[in-house]
Design goal:
2 copies of one chain form a homodimer. By secondary structure, the first copy, chain A, is α+β, with helices and mostly antiparallel strands. Chain A is built from 6 helices and 26 strands. In chain A, strands 14-11-12-13-26-25-24-18-22 form a 9-stranded antiparallel sheet. In chain A, helix 5 packs antiparallel against helix 6. The longest helix of chain A has 14 residues. At the A-B interface, helix 2, strand 9, helix 5 and strand 21 of A face helix 2, strand 9, helix 5 and strand 21 of B.
């Protein structure tokens, strides 16, 4: 059984599958890549138990068969191949890999040692891949990395006829992205944040097919199929924590605000939760930090709206920086008060919303 | 006291000094950067006790003075400055840093808290900076990282009227670079390998002035002055271990050999010292490795010379790869036998020599 294929196509297809395959595992089967030859298609698959990935690649294939071999070693060899094309020759106990002057034999394991994964063949829903990528990547940063609130380590994905929406929160802040795209499906999914990272990496051009299953959902895009395990539990109702009254709004260039916050944050003191202070007054936001080694100050022009003409409050610099990072063009910050949540909205991209809570300062 | 200077010049000058300044140290003085304003020159200096570095920068300077402040924090602030120029305003207790919209005050410490370093003002020897860089960077990799042979953690630099030469060895291999450049000095220096790294980073264009001192040597190049502490002890006589008889030589393209070794090495087994096997016969070197997951094989054409027509031997792949890495164009390998040292020479660059010892294999 032989395959002749371009080295670049092979490297790309393998990279996404290899990334979920552990180098070592208490379940040795997980470290194996499954390779299937059928018709003119070469298929790779692997899993980390949270996400199953399959990559299909059109190639010059002779013969049908199913094989298994260590995923990390195969990936490392393929990345080092010298030629523009590669020939894979599968025997009973080893696969010969020839590319340019390079000639390697890798040992195979029994094909049934690699996880046998099943992927749906029909995907009833669909979205533009770039749109789903934007929805997920805008909120990913806000998911928790703590163990004690397991549900907050997931990202909630709401699929409705009227919208596609993602929400992530760590209990202290929240990010939300609302797209009017209709997937044709209806459901609430809570997806582990690490699986969201893999989905974002695979989403590229064209469309993504989606189907909801029992305890998982599946995606199909651009030659890849994924089964993504869902988390169990309920995400708290984020609408209840979002304030309704905002005595002051500002509209500001996202790029200028990002740069100013990044520079002032250098001086922020980790011992005070990276505190930076904002004073908004007279069409200017004045940003300051006072750390162990001195202070920093920077001003950015803003457009002010609302009943109040000024406000002074403090944030964790890291939380403010992450809340504004997904935005380009102009953004709006709505202040509900000096110790109650502030909201960050996209003006140029109105689908985005983030909530951050000001630091309680001694003088409040 | 004020300084007006381009942000790029400031960042570059500071980067080299900042790198040797520890963020924290049991000797707190070491974490401080010394800043001096005099005439139209801004000077920074710092030390890690193994290497002292001073950077001099022509700038628009008003007033004279000496100041000290935490080196790492100042470096971080300077790298984040938004404007093309920066104004530094030194007061009694703080320095104000203004660049674009950015306005920071950093606290100063007493000037005498920072190490007070003295650099020679006359440099009796000189070399082209690029030549000294080539000499040192060609052998650096071969220095030891082990604690038990302290002297091998240094690089030996021989300065003679007829040559400038560097040697490094970890006791198992050796690298040597011979330049016919005459520094005008005569001496044998053993320099800690970490200080060699800093010297290589600073060497750029033009000339480097050199002067030998008591337990140290000093360099001056391109606005920088360095005092480099020397190691005490004697480097073993490398001439004694270099074989004299070579029944077989090969000449081969450095690029092709490097690539082939890198690819075959992927399969080499760490449990057998990353063994790769070379068989030279009939104008071809055949390189193979056999690891836990299979084997790799690659062939490269060579030009053979000598009384023997073939040889088969094994190396640690890492040692062979490192020995050929400094070379471009063509290289020569001289084989003294299957268990005695092999020598790698530059053909295109004849100043370079490396010695590696074949692995003892079970069949020997």
């Amino acid at each position: 059984m032989k395959v002749h294929v371009s080295t670049t196509s092979l490297t790309d297809a393998l990279a996404h599958v290899e990334r979920v395959i552990p180098a070592r595992s208490s379940n040795p089967g997980l470290s194996y890549l499954r390779v299937s030859l059928q018709g003119d298609v070469l298929t790779f698959s692997g899993t980390n138990m949270e996400i199953d990935i399959e990559a299909r690649l059109t190639a010059d294939v002779q013969g049908n068969g199913i094989f298994a071999l260590p995923g990390q070693v195969f990936g490392q060899v393929v990345r080092a191949l010298p030629g523009e094309t590669v020939d894979l020759e599968f025997g009973e106990r080893e696969v010969r890999i020839v590319s340019g002057n390079f000639d390697t034999k890798l040992q195979l394991v029994d094909a049934d040692q690699a996880p046998q994964l099943e992927f749906p063949s029909e995907f009833s829903g669909k979205l533009r891949a770039a749109e789903l990528s934007r929805v997920l990547s805008s909120v990913r940063y806000s998911a928790s990395t703590n163990d004690y609130q397991a549900i907050f380590r997931g990202v909630k994905l709401e699929l409705e006829q009227t919208h596609t929406r993602a929400i992530a929160s760590d209990g202290f802040r929240l990010a939300y992205y609302h797209s009017e795209a209709d997937s044709g499906l209806s459901g609430n999914l809570i997806v582990p944040a690490r699986s969201i990272d893999e989905i974002i990496r695979i989403l590229d051009e064209g469309e993504v097919g989606i189907v909801l299953g029992e305890g998982q959902f599946s995606l199909s895009t651009n030659g890849y199929r994924l089964n993504v395990k869902l988390m169990e539990g309920n995400f708290p109702d984020y609408n209840r924590v979002i304030p309704k009254d905002f005595p002051l709004d500002i509209i500001v260039s996202a790029a200028k605000l990002k740069e100013a916050v990044a520079r002032v944050a250098v001086l922020a003191d980790p011992a005070t939760n990276n505190r930076i202070d904002l004073i908004i007054d007279n069409g200017v936001v004045n940003i300051t930090a006072q750390g162990a080694y001195g202070g920093a100050q920077e001003s950015v022009e803003v457009e002010q709206e609302g009943t109040d003409s000024q406000i002074a409050l403090a944030y964790n610099a890291k939380y403010l920086a992450e809340a504004i990072r997904p935005l380009d063009g102009e953004l709006r910050i709505r202040f509900s008060g000096v110790i109650t949540p502030s909201l960050v909205y996209g003006v140029t991209d109105p689908g985005y919303l983030a909530m951050i809570v000001p630091l309680k300062t001694v003088t409040d």
